[in-house]
């Protein structure tokens, strides 16, 4: 796999990438800008790659799968937990556009700097930013339309559902499954679970 177009084509052929807006974001936000120099040649291989601190930039197919379930759209206010390289934050930033916003949170200081540096290539204002995660998961008291989590929890963190607007979605790995949560009312939600994934651990 040598170039971005063939990587994207293969994820489309696998019927994982489907939505025009998500495909366009993959085309516009070049993964090569988010992988370390030593892995530049592998930027378009469909695999996770090391970004330092024992963390990884996620596998493209997995990111596509999670984003198709998250269904981000123009104008959304999005929380991206586990910003790492900044790749998913930049993709989401492209999708939400001028009226939306994306907050990426990352717990490891050096990766906060890496993510900010990489994101700055794509986003030049405050709408989309990466900050250091606090002691509590997410941003308690805030509400988002969508929450994406790129590290795996042992069990579903209910506190993230509190941070969703009604109608909002949370996509989060729990152990080796990806959970898709849709908040249907103040105290109810639907849960879909898709098994068969590996992530770095969510630490909190
Ligand atoms: N979206 C990233 C994926 C990075 S891997 C990318 O595209 O590169 C997941 C990241 O989650 C790691 O960098 C890890 O440090 C971070 N992480 C783990 N627990 C976290 C928490 N509680 N809050 C914020 N970030 C967390």
- The percentage helix is 25-40%
Shape: globular
Q: Domains counted in the coordinates: how many? A: 1
If you compute it from the alpha carbons, what radius of gyration comes out, rounded to the nearest whole angstrom?
A: 16 Å
Main sheet overview: 7 strands, mixed
Helical stretch count?
6
Oligomeric state of shown chains: single chain
Spatial ordering of strands, largest sheet: 5-4-3-6-7-8-9
CATH superfamily: Vaccinia Virus protein VP39
> What sequence of helices (H) and strands (E) makes up the elements?
HHEEHEHEHEEHEEE
CATH architectural type: 3-Layer(aba) Sandwich
EC number: 2.1.1.77
Enzyme class: transferase
InterPro entries: PCMT, SAM-dependent_MTases_sf
Main location: cytoplasm
